[in-house]
Amino acid sequence: MPPFPTLQHPLARVSSVIAVVMTTPAIARATTDTPTTPAALHGESGLDAMLVATGLALAATIAALLANWVLTTAHAKIRTGVRVTTLHERVSLWKALSRVPYFSDFDPRPALLTLNTWLLWLGRIAILNFYALTVLGLFPQTRPFNDLLLNSLLHSLANIAEGLLSYFPKLVTIAVTLLVTYHAVRLIRFVFAQMKAHPEDLGFNLPTDLIDAFCKIAIAVAWVFGVMIVAPLLPGLGSQTGQVIGLLVGAMITFGSGSTIGNAVAGLVLAYMRPFETGDRVRIGDFEGDVLERHFTNVRLRTIKNEVVTLTTQAVLTSPITNFSTPLSRERGLILHTRVTIGYNVPRGQVQALMLEAARRTEGVTLDPAPFVLVIELGDFSVSYELNASTFLPHAKVTILSQLQANMLDTFNEAGVEILSPRYQAIRDGNPATVAPAWEAPVEKREPSLIQVVLAQHGDHPHYQHFNAAAHPWEKEEPTA
């Protein structure tokens, strides 16, 4: 470590500027008032006097170096002592505070290290100034500079002390306000952290996203109030120039942060709506993927192509959101569906059997709930069928759907059924009709009727409380042989 501060350190640069500012008037006056004729300096410019002054200057240099070494050594020892991990065990106040939950993570060591560094550089600046005054006062040629430099230094220190004394009440108010705001923010974080860690003690269900959102809002409000109190007390802000700068900054914030505020509000609405959680497979607008991150202003998705898409919360809020990982899909399964059109010449039962066989062959498709086929449309030239199959793997829906369609292609090819939509012209001149031949499905166990399924799932709904199944003859049990 160098004996004196170099210009590489910010505090050294500040000290250099202070020295230049304080010595410039003194040098200017000294160059005009100091007698430099040989007759004026003959009495004190003898060889003996110069040797004595040189010796004293050398002694002052050694003393300055020694003082700097003592100061540097003390700084290093204090820094080492503060950085010791067992410091909180040796300081009784710190040990007592660490037992309080609010102060359990309180660590004053960074602040103490910063204070120690500032004291080091202030001490070096003081040593440098005293050294300069001492050396300049030893030689008759530089003694006027010493007097003027000392007067300028004392005058500057008096002005600084007077300014600090006059500004001291406001300075105390600023310090107390910042201290209160800082501890208010710490208290807010502590309270919401406890709410997040022990949600059962709240007495009501509050989602984690809402807890984080309310915590950020409370912290922002606390800092806004703190800045509103401190800003009028800062020097220069009450002047006309400060007011103009404040207006310009306010206008820039007003016109430049409109979208940011809108995204923040949209993020708060999304936190309250909770349409998805981190890790869910969702489709937002034209993008489908897994939710990587959720913030107040943006949402990040990783698509099935491993692309990361960033969407603003305003765009998310105004787009349709489809969540494939809801608790309902985890409980009952996510239903995947695909459609195919087959001509009227193929029996309906055969088409349904082939589609169900494709579902049974597909890995990831569950048989409970069982797959089912819907007849969607009777078109002019073909019938539209839809296969619905459930899966409990929503993050693999694209792969499962691809395998399901591939298995449908295989089962239809094995049965010799063409997947196409033929077109016909109704010319009744003896050509064969397009009516499908009779086809008998394999005998399977009778499934519950549709009414039984609906009543089992929605029987507690008011619409079905007085439902009479006997009034629907198509749902009656068939007579047994």
Structural class computed from helices and strand pairing:
alpha+beta
Largest sheet: 5 strands, antiparallel
Overall mean confidence score, pLDDT: 76
What is the H/E order?
HHHHHHHHHHEEEEHEHEHEEEHH
**Relative strand content:** 5-15%
Unreliably modeled segments = 1-43, 471-481
Question: How many strands appear in the DSSP assignment?
Answer: 9
Shape: elongated
Helix segment count? 15
Structure description:
This protein is an alpha+beta fold. Helices cover 56% and strands 11% of the residues. It has 15 helices and nine strands. The longest helix is centred in the middle third of the chain and has 55 residues.
Keywords:
single chain; 481 residues; alpha+beta; five-stranded antiparallel sheet; four-stranded antiparallel sheet; 9 strands
SSE order and pairing:
Elements: H1 10-33, H2 38-41, H3 47-83, H4 87-90, H5 92-98, H6 109-138, H7 143-197, H8 208-230, H9 240-256, H10 258-273, E1 281-284, E2 287-294, E3 298-303, E4 308-312, H11 313-317, E5 321-323, H12 327-332, E6 334-343, H13 348-361, E7 365-366, E8 372-378, E9 382-391, H14 397-414, H15 450-458
Antiparallel strand pairs: 1-2, 1-5, 2-3, 3-4, 6-9, 7-9, 8-9
